[in-house]
Design brief:
The structure holds 2 protein chains of 2 kinds.
Chain A (H helix, E strand, L loop, with lengths): L4 H25 L11 E5 L12 H4 L1 E4 L33 E5 H12 L12 E12 L9 H14 L19 E11 L1 E9 L6 H21 L2 E9 L3 E4 L1 H6 L8 H15 L5 E9 L6 H18 L3 E6 L7 H10 L6 E6 L5 H9 L4
Parallel strand pairs in A: 6-7, 6-9, 9-10, 10-11
Antiparallel strand pairs in A: 1-3, 4-5, 7-8
Helix pairs in contact in A: 3-5, 5-10, 7-8
Chain B lengths: L4 E2 L2 H16 L7 E6 L1 H9 L10 H15 L7 E4 L4 E6 L4 H20 L10 H19 L1 H12 L14 H21 L8 H14 L3 H17 L4 H8 L4 H22 L1 H20 L5 H11 L9 H17 L4 H6 L3 H5 L8 H11 L2 H8 L2 H6 L2 E7 L4 E6 L2 H12 L6 E9 L4 E7 L7 H15 L3 E7 L2 E7 L4 E4 L1
Parallel strand pairs in B: 2-4, 8-9
Antiparallel strand pairs in B: 1-2, 3-4, 5-6, 7-8, 9-10, 10-11
Helix pairs in contact in B: 1-4, 1-12, 2-3, 4-12, 5-6, 5-11, 6-11, 6-21, 7-9, 8-11, 10-11, 12-14, 14-17, 18-20
Classes of the chains: A alpha/beta, B alpha+beta.
């Protein structure tokens, strides 16, 4: 008979499986740092179930370390969240190491897809984008030494030796000469592919606080992840707006401080310009996302926004997604305006309200579950 | 299911040899039993807190999962487990090489001596092996009766509160002891009256049943004694949340028993959590002493140094209790050998004299034995940490810098380090939570108070914990704390969380 702990273990795994959803849910909602490593590797903690306890908030706590360094120097890595010694473990060499398994981006996206039952996206403008790729599939007689194909070279030399009867089976030395050399060479291929662009617009007006932005940040991360798994090459553009809009890089997008009033039309205008300038709707799958707390400056501006949506953005995009983050100050009026005009979700429009961090996953599902 | 077996042959000879060295150095320990096992078994034991039998629960499976994966990926390896029992059991990994086994044995004698002599362990039940096994049997029985899911779900809820302990519970005042004795005797008489004999119910359950009986039975004398204990208890320790729940929450018998079981186990492990630095420091001090002065063969010196250095590694994220512990022990020994303490030494302003201070006092050994007897981590650090030591050991504090989004070294100042270290150790690193009112707002609501020493609670976790507490208390629960500099009461009424300013 096996040790009873195997039953505990099996039970744990069952809980995790039944709850892998639950776990992932919490994981997303806490916006844990998922850091791209190298090209597309991510580290995520191994499945654990945290029994809730009264405990200290991690970040305000800080800690103690030992080693060289001056005040201000970074302490490598993150603080071990399980900083306290485990119970009853008086054993030697029992480091309290956080285990991490590496997941590739594809795996993570697949888990997300399974988790949310997301349909694969049906791209429009099938294979409309031409791209020229060089692939080393051919063999040539000239080339740099670094591309020399040794097997083919020796094969050629052997052929020559046999043909010229200079091959001696008793002393089977094969010596290539200059004209035996073979090199890998490239073929130029034209590949068709789907291209997609995501345009994130975020309201950074005074009413969007840190928590709201954290939500937007986490949500965009997972949306990016999913779209990246669906499109080979994805462009991402970022727009922030208060009363005026400007295009920014990723870094700024996530770190800008809040200020000012709100004119949503400014962002839509800029979005339209970007599309007009860079992305032909016939060739590109376009996904504009707009996150706001729904507090627009005036009804006039809202009218302008709806106009822009109707005439420019809807026709160009696969689907326009509007996510409204709940904030203490926002009125949430814009959501109501959109609902009033389009009667909720339609072919071209997806609306979602994100109440808090826990709502992120549901919201992603609302955005992406149409498979467009 | 014999997964472990006693040592024989060469290992046994080695044990006798090391034991003799330990005795010669003056270590005083319980009879020591070593057993060997394979890595899977040691992972199992470690997952179960060192004990071969525990109650069924997924958390052991989770720990086992992590340990076995950790071992499989080569991230960690457990060389040994030692358990605070009498006789003291220790498990050795079969695959350890000869030097490892030597180090581990020497290390274990240090732990054993510490378990036996340190004051904080004076009231622990040394028969825990059997107690744990009995707990397992009982909980399994409850699972058969009430369903595995129901019992497990209840255990989950109790585990949520498992860290809310009162260290004062480790010691009993003599008055308390006396009145408890009386109560036990009285109960003996009574149980014969009632016709049920001594049973295997836990002390906690009995006390629970007494409280229940109290309301139905009119027994003046007993009630008095009972009241006395309860009164003293609630006065002394409102931090003993689990104990409080057993007494006052509207729960079934089996639930009270489960809380009692988990509480007993939590208190059993508590002294180990309070003496991590000292215990590991002491054991490391002795493995190092025994190995370098006696047990090592010249050919093993490099292997030993390698292993020892691995155990002593310094980290920038955490302090290594082995390292700080052993260094502080050595520092104390050095200072007391040379009389580097007291008025004259402290008031000496000549750095040169101070550095070469030596009164030939030679009380180092004596002092560290005394220290291991009467201190816990907090008093140990409080009394013996010196600015010199902090500088030599390159200690520092770090904190989160929201601007750069990373943890940065904050200070290398002695006072800051000491304060940080002490605050981390206060209440064994857990927030101090006490019961303030069991009839809050005169509505039978429970009010807990978080004694705030500058660090906020994790609100998400606090809310979930309240949810679990509610399931036991069955009336709205409240937690008074400070959050972002503001006094706030978190309120959970079974449906929603409401922070009340």
């Amino acid at each position: 008979m096996d040790h009873p702990i195997k039953r505990d273990h099996a039970r744990f795994r069952k809980i995790v499986k039944g709850r892998i959803r639950e776990n992932l849910r919490k994981y997303v909602s806490h916006g844990s740092q998922i850091i791209p490593k190298g090209t597309d590797k991510f580290t995520v903690p191994m499945p654990t179930i945290d029994i809730p306890r009264f405990k200290f908030g991690d970040k305000s706590q800080g800690g103690m370390g030992q080693g060289q360094g001056q005040p201000g120097d970074p302490v490598d890595g993150q603080q071990d969240p399980n900083g306290q010694p485990g119970q009853g473990e008086t054993g030697e060499g029992e480091g309290n190491k956080e285990l991490e398994v590496e997941l590739s981006l594809e795996e993570l996206a697949r888990i997300l897809g399974e988790e949310l039952e997301l349909p694969n996206i049906e791209p429009k403008g099938k294979k409309s984008l031409k791209s020229v790729v060089d692939r080393y599939t051919n063999i040539g007689t000239t080339g740099p030494d670094s591309l020399r194909h040794l097997r083919r070279t020796y094969k050629q030399a052997l052929k020559r030796q046999i043909a010229t009867d200079s091959y001696d089976p008793d002393n089977p030395a094969v010596i290539p000469v200059r004209r035996d050399f073979r090199y890998r060479s490239s073929d130029t291929k034209v590949e068709m592919q789907n291209a997609a662009v995501v345009i994130y617009m975020m309201d950074v007006s005074g009413s969007m606080g840190d928590e709201q932005k954290e939500i937007v940040r986490t949500e965009s991360f997972w949306i990016n992840l999913w779209l990246k798994s669906q499109y080979k090459d994805i462009k991402i553009r970022y727009i922030i707006h208060d009363a005026t809009a400007k295009e920014v890089d990723e870094h700024t997008f996530f770190r800008t401080r809040e200020s000012g009033g709100t004119l949503i039309s400014s962002a839509y205008n800029l979005c339209k310009e970007i599309i007009d300038k860079d992305y032909n709707p016939n060739e590109w799958n376009i996904y504009p996302f707009h996150f706001s707390d729904g507090d627009n400056w005036s009804a006039d501006d809202t009218k302008l926004c709806l106009d822009l949506l109707d005439n420019h953005i809807f026709p160009a995009s696969n689907v326009f997604c509007y996510g409204q983050v709940e904030s203490r100050y926002g009125s949430g009026q814009f959501y109501k305006d959109l609902t009033a005009k389009y009667g909720g979700n339609s072919d071209k429009l997806t609306l979602s309200k994100i109440k808090n961090k826990e709502g992120i996953l549901d919201s992603i599902k609302e955005f992406l579950s149409k498979g467009k | 299911m014999n997964r472990t077996k006693p040592i024989t042959g060469e290992l046994l000879a080695l044990k006798n040899q090391i034991e003799q060295y330990a005795r010669d150095y003056g270590l005083d320990f319980y009879p020591q039993i070593f057993e060997v096992c394979d890595y899977d078994t040691i992972n199992i034991l470690a997952a179960q807190g060192g004990f071969p039998n525990r109650y069924p629960h997924w958390k052991f499976g989770m720990d086992y999962d992590q340990l076995s994966k950790g071992y499989a990926y080569g991230l960690q390896k457990i060389y040994e487990m030692v358990i605070n029992t009498n006789p003291c059991y220790a498990y050795l990994l079969q695959a350890n090489n000869w030097v490892d086994q030597k180090i581990v044995m020497a290390h274990v004698y240090g732990h054993n001596d510490f378990f036996k002599n340190n004051a904080w362990f004076s009231n622990t039940n040394r028969n825990m092996m059997d107690v744990m096994a009995n707990h397992g049997t009982k909980i399994r029985r409850y699972m058969e009766r009430f369903g595995a899911d129901a019992v497990e779900a209840f255990i989950d809820k109790v585990l949520s509160l498992e860290n809310l302990l009162d260290i004062n519970e480790l010691f009993e005042t003599s008055a308390l002891k006396r009145s408890r004795k009386e109560l036990v005797e009285q109960e003996k008489v009574e149980s014969e009256d009632d016709g049920y004999l001594i049973d295997d119910r836990s002390a906690a359950l009995k006390s629970f049943m007494r409280t229940k009986a109290r309301s139905s039975k009119k027994d003046e004398k007993k009630e008095e004694a009972q009241e006395h204990i309860v009164a003293e208890r609630t006065q002394v320790s409102t931090k003993d949340i689990l104990g409080y729940l057993i007494q006052h929450a509207p729960i079934e018998e089996w639930q009270a028993d489960i809380i009692g079981i988990l509480r007993e186990e939590a208190y059993y492990f508590l002294p180990q959590r309070m003496t991590k630095i000292m215990n590991e420091g002491w054991a490391s001090y002795w493995h190092s002493t025994i190995m370098t002065q006696k047990a090592l063969d010249a050919s093993e010196i490099v292997d030993f140094a390698d292993k020892h250095a691995g155990v002593m590694h310094m980290s920038k994220q955490n302090i290594n209790p082995y390292k700080v512990g052993i260094e502080l022990m050595r520092d104390i020994e050095y200072r007391w050998n040379r009389g580097m303490f007291g008025k004259d030494y402290n008031e000496c302003t000549n750095m040169k004299d101070k550095l070469s201070w030596d009164t030939k006092l030679g009380k180092g050994k004596e002092k560290i034995f005394e220290v291991r007897k009467s201190h816990n981590d907090i008093s140990f650090i409080d009394e013996f940490l010196t600015p010199d030591f902090c500088e030599r050991q390159q200690l520092f504090t770090y904190k989160y810098n929201p601007r750069s989004g990373r943890f940065e070294i904050d200070s290398k100042d002695f006072k800051a380090i000491k304060q940080k270290l002490l605050s981390q150790l206060t209440n064994f690193g857990q927030p101090i939570i006490e019961v303030e009112d069991g009839n809050y707002m005169n509505r039978k609501e429970l009010l807990l108070n978080h004694v705030h020493y500058g660090v906020d609670l994790d609100v998400g976790f606090a809310n979930e914990t309240l949810r679990n507490l509610f399931a036991i208390w069955r009336r709205p629960v409240n937690l008074k704390t400070k959050y972002e500099e503001k006094e706030v009461v978190f309120h959970f009424d079974g449906k929603e969380f409401k922070p009340q300013a």
